[in-house]
Amino acid sequence: MQNTTVNKNDLVKLGYKEHTATSIIRQAKQIMVQQGYAFYNNRRLGRVPVSTVESILGISLLNNFKEE
What InterPro entries does the database record attribute to this sequence (predicted)? Predict the structure, then answer.
């Protein structure tokens, strides 16, 4: 089963620094809220869709997760 969400720890495992990973998750949550998903307007929620993070970074993360 593919993981369709990503959190800060997943990004840190991929080599991003902790603050950068947190910023990426924060940006992804803002995008999801702008798209109409009010569920992501919750400070305790730390998982976001991989597709949103991929659009921020401009790279595919699914290939990176399969290598682990």
Answer: DUF3173
**Residue 33 to residue 61: CA distance in whole angstroms:** 22
Say if CB 29 and CB 47 are below 8 A apart: no
Task: Parse the chain into domains and list their residue ranges.
Answer: 5-67
Containing 20, the helix (H) or strand (E) segment is helix 18-34
Tens of pLDDT, residue by residue, the chain (68 residues): 467 899 999 999 999 999 999 999 999 999 999 999 999 999 999 999 999 999 999 988 876 665 55
pTM for this entry: 0.86
Which neighbouring-strand residues pair with 57? none
